[in-house]
């Protein structure tokens, strides 16, 4: 039998931040980390939805140590405020989970194409602003949630914001390739430091991610189709979150690894987390360096990695 959440070690004394923690994979990850004793910070965009998730978590695990903090990854001012309010607390685990998939063209508060801005730049900025806390905490980890959909398209460094031509699925795939390139470059820069950077994908997990795009596009037919597909082949969030929790806590996780279901099947994750196929371009050193430099330029944020 493969790795399961029962294998998560005792996490008392550890502090974790989970973005997009109000639902889906983020909520399940927060719940299981809190169940093992970690202090979990639910980083959510909505006060109402975040508070509801916090109350639900405390209802399921009354002894949990958890708190809600607002974070809008589509607004760098919000990212800076979140990091600025962190103070001098330790940070053992940062899970960059929140994301959007195949939505109509829109821009973030800072003018970035929304999928690239939220899925990559927002998390890049958050990680950079919290990097000194991670570096000061022995055994800290950064886990980035990507997707197998990254294979649909590499990034286009000449058009990171998809301004020449916007196709929602291509933009999503590029943002997920950016997640893997970011993880690759972060892992390279962390060599010699006691901080691990790894990436994951959940397989096909049934969450709000699939229905958000049709909802934003005003397509009731698309929303119905997404819900039907979720029921037909989607795995429950508890299953989809397993690779994420493995990368966050298992002792055997390697830097720059990409963990997902070892066997992809309808509504299941057989054999526990494994190493899925990964596009070669996501390990390209030159590309990851150029994306890193572009991300620093766009966000105005530099990492404090000696």
Give a description of the structure:
The protein has helices at 24-35, 47-60, 76-84, 114-135, 168-189, 209-217, 220-233, 237-240, 242-249, 285-299; strands at 15-19, 39-44, 65-70, 93-96, 140-145, 195-200, 258-265, 268-274. Helices cover 42% and strands 16% of the residues. The chain has a single domain, classed as Rossmann fold (3-Layer(aba) Sandwich), CATH 3.40.50.720. The relative contact order is 0.15. An 8-stranded mixed sheet has the order 3-2-1-4-5-6-7-8, with helices on both faces. The model is unreliable at 266-271 (pLDDT under 50). It is globular. Helix 1 (24-35) links the parallel strand 1 and strand 2 (39-44). With 306 residues, the chain is an alpha/beta fold.
Summarize the structure.
This protein has 306 residues and is of the alpha/beta class. Helix content is 42%, strand content 16%. InterPro entries: NAD(P)-bd_dom_sf, SDR_fam.
How much of the sequence lies in strands comes to: 15-25%
Count of separate DSSP helical elements: 10
Shape: globular
The CATH topology is Rossmann fold
Side by side, the strands of the main sheet go 3-2-1-4-5-6-7-8
- Given as residue ranges, the uncertain stretches (5+ residues, pLDDT < 50) are 266-271
GO molecular function: oxidoreductase activity
Family: Belongs to the short-chain dehydrogenases/reductases (SDR) family.
Protein name: SDR family NAD(P)-dependent oxidoreductase
Pfam families: adh_short
């Amino acid at each position: 039998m493969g790795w399961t959440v029962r294998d998560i070690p005792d996490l008392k004394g550890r502090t974790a931040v989970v973005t997009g923690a109000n639902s889906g994979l983020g909520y399940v990850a927060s719940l299981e980390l809190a169940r093992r004793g970690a202090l979990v910070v639910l980083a959510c965009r909505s006060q109402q939805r975040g508070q509801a998730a916090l109350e639900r978590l405390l209802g399921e695990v009354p002894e949990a140590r958890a708190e809600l903090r607002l974070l809008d990854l589509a607004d760098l001012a919000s990212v800076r405020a979140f990091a600025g309010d962190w103070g001098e607390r330790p940070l053992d685990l940062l899970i960059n989970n929140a994301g959007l998939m195949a939505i109509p063209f829109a821009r973030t508060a800072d003018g970035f194409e929304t999928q690239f801005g939220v899925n990559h730049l927002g998390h890049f900025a958050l990680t950079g602003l919290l990097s000194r806390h991670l570096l000061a905490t022995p055994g800290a980890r950064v886990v980035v949630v990507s997707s197998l959909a990254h294979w649909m398209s590499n990034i286009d460094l000449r058009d990171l914001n998809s301004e020449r031509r916007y196709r929602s699925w291509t933009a999503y795939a590029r943002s997920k390739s950016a997640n893997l390139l970011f993880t690759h470059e972060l892992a390279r820069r962390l060599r010699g430091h006691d901080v691990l950077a790894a990436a994951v994908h959940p397989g096909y997990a049934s969450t709000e991610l699939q229905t958000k795009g049709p909802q934003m596009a005003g397509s009731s037919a698309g929303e119905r189709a997404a819900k039907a597909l979720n029921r037909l082949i989607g795995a429950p969030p508890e299953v989809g979150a397993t690779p994420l929790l493995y990368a966050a806590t298992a002792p055997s996780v390697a830097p720059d690894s990409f963990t997902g279901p070892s066997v992809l099947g309808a509504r299941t994750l057989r054999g526990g987390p494994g190493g899925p196929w990964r596009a070669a371009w996501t390990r390209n050193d030159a590309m990851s360096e150029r994306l890193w430099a572009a991300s620093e330029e766009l966000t105005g944020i530099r990492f404090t990695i000696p």
